[in-house]
């Protein structure tokens, strides 16, 4: 496996890097960003995965999310994968919410998507192996977070892999693709009409089907235009209550869906993850 | 004068806004970003001007610079103007370092640039009037900073307007357009071959010609690829020494020219400005 460094810049005392590698899961080159705090070379650092939202590449969070100072302070490696396969040979859709930039962290089963859109395998299996092999990381201390479609990704990846992540958080997550237009469109396209197959990609359904997380931190802006039509935080809160889970859901007055919201609270989240990753 | 709000988002407890207005200086609509910390409506806040570098619009610093938390903490309004006039009727050059995105904060005298490229008047006269009229700002407490071409802008605007700014800083500034290829190309194009007319736009020449600043803070990355061929920080240091000025010039080991560098030290600069603006 060849891993190619595309760029690196010193930032907040650590190194913000961009890497590319050939993915066997997607059959394409995949690019990801990684922030590596300064550390002793004998030291293995905890890892915080960041899954991004619709339209994003590896770059959006890297330049907008303001995680670097906090990750430098707490000594946490922060990884931003891309949100879909890329390239001229990869099928696409002209809409912003399907195809490239909108992989929804699923393994597609429908044509023409099945060949490349294997983002679940990429995020759950392949990229962790790449990261573990290339960087000074302690894979026994992983956390996961994300924004919007990436919040959906963080919750569902963590719910499906009990014990892998010591900490799980999300910003403005799509909590139930089964119950919103974004999810309906994307999962119909990638997975087909049998909605039973969608449940593994729906945090509410996963909890209904028995998955549990010991704790979850969610920030959600009350002025988020997508809160009512798409995100529906209350569905997650309800499912947790019925399951006896007690997530921390903070409804943030006045905040919208943008990275201006995420960047406001990311240092809080990094500190929250750090407490659990470094305990 | 009509001022139109294009967007606003709550961020770090303040409001990150984008505004557009018709500029009489440039003859075009001009767009700027402003971060307005939460404050009592009876309170007028100090202002920190941020002049951006080559290729930037009002947006680059707004999303990359990480100034918002610090400005919210210190109660400082942070303004990011555009770097040139824009629009289909505005002349341009295909190069990144001349024409749109590269106004160099001068009043052009050469055709076809003279009609629109009046960025000195825009930044020194027009935009301050717009800002003073529209926002809760205390124009007796202004600071100025900027990056690269915008560092050149900050230094020269402040040197030409003694007493207007209580604080002046810069990141990786072009200190002497008279002595670097970027400056040579741009000022020849905008001002013509008589290099005497360039001196008002050259921080080193302004100091040689008698301008003074009580203090200046400069951060410059040692790994900046433009340090030797274009930025030439030592020319500014030498001019200051000959003039009896004592700037604080911090050569930052390992840092490059990007916003990863700027974002690392911007909170330092905001705090430094705040000390002077709130004294």
The assigned structural class of chain A equals: alpha/beta
* Oligomer classification: homodimer
Largest sheet of chain A: 9 strands, mixed
Query: Regarding CATH, which class of chain A?
Result: Alpha Beta
Please compute the radius of gyration of chain A using only Cα atoms: 17 Å
Q: Portion of residues in helices of chain A?
A: 25-40%
At CATH level 3, the topology of chain A is Rossmann fold
Taking all residues together, what is the mean pLDDT of chain A? Answer: 97
As for the number of domains of chain A, it is: 1
Uncertain runs of chain A are: none
Shape of chain A: globular
The percent range for strand residues of chain A is: 15-25%
Show the largest interface: A-B, 23 and 23 residues
CATH superfamily of chain A: Alpha/Beta hydrolase fold, catalytic domain
Give the topology string of chain A: H per helix, E per strand: EEEEHHEHEHEHHEHHEH
Q: Total strand count of chain A, please?
A: 9
Widest sheet of chain A: strand order? 1-2-3-5-4-6-7-8-9
Calculate the terminal CA-CA distance of chain A, rounded to whole Å: 33 Å
Q: Based on the coordinates given, report the CATH architecture of chain A.
A: 3-Layer(aba) Sandwich
Number of helices of chain A: 9
């Amino acid at each position: 496996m060849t891993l190619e460094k595309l760029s690196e810049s010193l930032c907040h005392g650590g190194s913000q890097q961009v890497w590319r590698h050939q993915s066997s899961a997607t059959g394409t080159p995949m690019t990801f960003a990684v922030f590596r705090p300064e550390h002793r070379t004998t030291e293995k650092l905890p890892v915080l995965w960041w899954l991004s939202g619709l339209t994003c590449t590896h770059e959006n969070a890297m330049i907008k999310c303001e995680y670097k100072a906090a990750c430098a302070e707490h000594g946490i490696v922060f990884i931003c994968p891309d949100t879909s396969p890329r390239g001229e040979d990869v099928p696409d859709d002209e809409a912003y919410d399907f195809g490239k930039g909108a992989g929804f962290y699923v393994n597609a089963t429908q044509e023409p998507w099945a060949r490349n859109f294997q983002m679940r395998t990429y995020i759950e299996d392949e990229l962790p192996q790449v990261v573990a092999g290339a960087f000074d990381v302690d894979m026994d201390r992983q956390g996961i977070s994300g924004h919007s479609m990436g919040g959906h990704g963080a919750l569902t990846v963590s719910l499906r892999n009990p014990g892998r992540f010591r900490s799980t958080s999300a910003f403005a997550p799509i909590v139930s693709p089964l119950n919103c237009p974004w999810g309906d469109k994307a999962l119909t396209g990638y997975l087909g009409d049998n909605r039973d197959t969608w449940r593994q990609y729906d945090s509410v359904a996963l909890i209904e089907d028995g998955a549990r997380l010991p704790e979850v931190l969610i920030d959600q802006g009350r002025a988020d235009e997508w809160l009512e039509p798409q995100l529906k935080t209350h569905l997650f809160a309800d499912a947790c209550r019925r399951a006896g889970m007690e997530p921390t859901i903070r409804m943030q007055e006045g905040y919208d869906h943008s990275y201006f919201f995420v960047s406001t609270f990311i240092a809080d989240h990094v500190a929250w993850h750090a407490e659990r990753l470094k305990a």
